[in-house]
Amino acid sequence: MVFFTCNICGESVKKPAVEKHYQTRCRGKNKNVSCMDCLKDFYGEEYVAHIKCISEAQKYSSQSQGFTPKESRNKNAQKQENWMDIIRAILDSSEYKLTPDVRSAFQKLQSVDNVPRKKAKFENFVGNCMRMSRHQASQVWDILEKEINKMKEAKQAELARIKEEKIAALQKQQKEEAESEEAPPKKKAKQESAEEAAPEETSNGVSGDFDWPAQLTKIVGKQADGIFLEKLRKKLLKKYAKHLSVEDLTEKQAKKFQKRFDKQLKLADSLQVEGDLVKIAS
Question: Is the overall model pTM greater than 0.70, yes or no?
Fold first, then answer.
């Protein structure tokens, strides 16, 4: 919950209560508040868009001593942020032709940071906390539901496009590797490139393919909450060395491993990379 300080009377006010405060305590005054966490000033309706602020760890940590707090992985906060994005998209869109009453309802929703995301709870919430009639609440929800479905379809289309691009890139890579293996080495540089593109070899010279997608999915799948990128790399490196029947990789093998690791991680449709965390794609 974001808290503000009224710059007119000095009173501390919760974000949902700002409107009421300027209708009663500071009636007739222009809205002028500052955030209690980041100390930023907001004029008029600017405060409505301020739905998230810095954490206490960020506020009081000493940057001069090299301490930087990690970003919180609050899933509920992220869901609420997405919910607010939907509301803002509806207000900015000309598709829905909002009546003044319905537009006013959506503007009020912008100033609340705990809006339920299920129909029954949503209608009870706006009815009890925002004095909205059941009919109007149902109208607002229908518009929300339509926008949510539209965003889901757009996201699915984007994921399909990305998947097609990955498949095309993989097919192109496989074609290039096949062509480089068939071409006779004219120069030393071309010969080394062909060797890098060739399948991994064991220490006794027997060729064998290392199943990158399967090994990556197997390791990540064992971690319900995902696995850190560096830890995943180390685990896969052990399996890769075992595949080559060696204790330690040579410098050339290590470079090749890192290059293939980065590439295969990007191409893996079953995996999802979020910063330094890798998890099974949902």
Answer: no
Phi, psi of 271 (to 5 degrees): -115, 155
Q: Look at residue 197 and tell me whether its pLDDT is greater than 50.
A: no
- Angle of helix 134-182 versus helix 188-197 axis, rounded to 10: 130
Kind and range of the H or E element at 240?
helix 229-243
Residues facing 272 on adjacent strands: 279
For the stretch 85-144, pLDDT in tens is: 888 888 888 888 888 888 888 877 777 767 777 888 888 887 777 777 888 888 888 888
In a domain, 197, yes or no: no
Reported confidence tier of residue 79, pLDDT bands at 50, 70, 90 = confident
Within 10 Å of residue 150's Cβ, how many Cβ atoms? Answer: 14
Domain housing 144: 75-151
Give 221-232 pLDDT, tens digit per residue. Answer: 888 888 888 888
| CA–CA dist 215, 235 (Å, integer) | 10
- The number of residues in the chain equals 282
Using an 8 Å Cβ cutoff, are 45 and 31 in contact?
yes
169 falls within a domain? no
Query: Which of 63, 87, 105 represents a domain boundary (last residue)?
Result: 63
Q: Assign 73 a pLDDT band (cuts: 50, 70, 90).
A: low
Look up the CATH number of the domain holding residue 27. 3.30.1490.490
Q: 18 near 31, Cβ under 8 Å?
A: yes
- Final residue belonging to a domain, choices 130, 151, 172: 151
> Quick one: tokens of 210?
């290392």
Q: Are residues 234 and 264 in the same domain?
A: yes
Instruction: Give CA–CA dist 279/282, Å, rounded.
Output: 9
